[in-house]
Amino acid sequence: MSDSDVRVAALCGSLRDESHTRTALEHVLSTAEQAGATTELLDLREYELPIFDADRDRSAAGDAEQLAARVRAADTIVLGSPMYHGSYASPLKTALDYCGFDEFADKTVGLLAVSGGAFPVTALEHMRSVCRALNAWVIPHEAAVPNASAAVEDGEFVDPKLEKRVRTLGRRAVQYASIEPDPDSFESDQNVGAQGK
């Protein structure tokens, strides 16, 4: 697969109008485009996603089927979320609950987390655990934006080192889009909830 064939989709787990997560993901996608990829921001504000109910088919759950199809079509998925109570945000959790192995197995995933305070390490760890259970291959490089209100000003990063780290995720999203992970993670065969409803 050439870089021009790579499709990168970023799922934004923040619903805020002035979202630092969305801003950071836009930088990731801009860099992925510069590397030759086709990109798409999947802004969860634009999707009707009811709380996941395993008894309801995905096709009867608002825009869940449409969202899952867009995730499935991507070669690399970048998950972005603010850190809430030490984990990632519930809109992203709901979106991931409507996806499964069809959308994530053997796919490359990048992680980005944003926090109002210190380094959002637990949010990154929790997203990584979900991806591992779905048999995705998570890019070792991850991007974190701590102290977000001071880190971003008028849609731009104040610290060039932080901007470089975020943009590196965009380059890696393209670079590792066609990696073939092996073997399956030990959690994957225990994850019966990931069949995609």
Automatic annotation (TrEMBL):
Residues 7-148 form the NADPH-dependent FMN reductase-like domain. InterPro entries: Flavoprotein-like_sf, FMN_Rdtase-like_dom, NAD(P)H-dep_reductase. Its cofactor is [4Fe-4S] cluster. Belongs to the SsuE family. Isf subfamily. SUPFAM superfamilies: Flavoproteins. This is NAD(P)H-dependent FMN reductase. GO terms for cellular component: cytosol. It comes from the Archaea. It comes from Natrinema salaciae.
